[in-house]
Amino acid sequence: MKTKKLLALVLAAVMMLAMTACLQNNAPASDGGETATEAQPAESSTDAAPATTAGSDGAPAITSTDKIDIIWSHNSPESSAGHKIALKFKEEMETRSGGNITVTIYPNGELGSVPENDQALREGSIQIGSGTSGGLIDKRLSYFDAPNLVSSNEQALAMIGRDTDLFKYTAGIYNDMGLQVLSLVPGGFRETSSNKEIRSFEDLKGLKIRTLENPTAIAYWQSWGCNPTPVAFSDLYLALQQGLVEAQENAYNTISSSKLYEQQKYIVNTHHVIMWSGIYMNKAFYDSLPDDYRALLDWVCVNVMDSYAYERNIADNDEALQVMKDAGLEVIDLAEEDYAKMREAAAPAYELIRNDVGDEAMNILEAAIAAANG
After folding, report:
1. Cα 321 to chain center, whole Å?
2. Every domain of the chain and the residues it spans
């Protein structure tokens, strides 16, 4: 595994060195010199593919002949929805650019851990990353950790539409981080698996649940009368098996792929936190692309990737839920009044979030919730 990761890193470094060398030969001199995140795409080569015409579906035409390679690194397995989304992006960009743009994908954390990939994306040594959003990325995004915003995927999608203030505000935070949001859609909910039968909000009282080592998550589970216990994910299966905790919370596909359901009796649809499926690009790289390449990138993400990512994530979670049903777990749906009680009781968590993100962000979030529920 170490050898595979080393080879992948060497290959990525070679790609970046080649691009940088080409850029230095062609870019005009600047007062301060170029940084890694200010790199420009390679100049056109003599064997570049001919220009493509506009697609019949409205995709913009490509007139540039620059050869561009985009490195996309993520930490999901190749069987995951996240990797299938990356493959779809690769197919769309390579086909529609006539081969001028190529996308090299590194799954399974081949180029590093989640924090390492995040740092590489911000520095520009990789160009695209993907994953969920929230306070663990940046405290200013902690509003995405708020519990029980909505109770369906459809409502969550309405919250974050590209024309909404919530999407625009979120994109602005990512811009400040040096990243461009290419796509951001719901990826399903964090749900609860348990050995305790939970059929109402009141049944949550006393639940010994493993949760994230996140002050917001701990606060809302405590406000529901539970006993939240942070446990490393690598130790969670054993903790459930030995009874250290009797419940845990994750997306369906995580519960299924990690076999956690083998130590559980129930899947309780608490819908307590939305998992966001995001695609992010180094902003300096995005800004440096030729206008027609950037127009194609934007078109593909708006017209193809948003819907594909949303549908692929939902399908992936549905398939995971069926696996757990087939294994004999009972699925319990809570009533709408239970979700309302959970949100009302979670006021302390909302105050923690407000302290992190400020009134403006929370006001935008509340407006998005009201619009989605309206």
Report:
1. 20
2. 2-138+159-187+276-315, 190-274+318-373
Contact of 80 with 277, CB cutoff 8 Å? no
Burial of 57 by CB count in 10 Å (0-12 exposed, 13-18 middle, 19+ buried)?
A: exposed
Phi-psi region of 180 (alpha: psi -120 to 50; beta: other; left: phi over 0): beta
Q: What is the pLDDT of residue 374?
A: 77
Which CATH entry fits the domain spanning 2-138+159-187+276-315: 3.40.50.720, 3.40.190.170, 3.40.50.300, 1.10.15.40? Answer: 3.40.190.170
Provide the whole-model pTM: 0.83
Is the pLDDT reported for residue 2 higher than 50? Answer: no
Q: What single-letter DSSP state applies at residue 86? A: H
Is the pLDDT higher at 29 or at 329? 329
Give the residue from 239, 241, 242, 261 showing the smallest Cα distance to 250: 261
DSSP state of 304: I
Q: What's the CATH fold of domain 190-274+318-373?
A: D-Maltodextrin-Binding Protein; domain 2 (3.40.190)
Residue bearing the bigger pLDDT, 16 or 190? 190
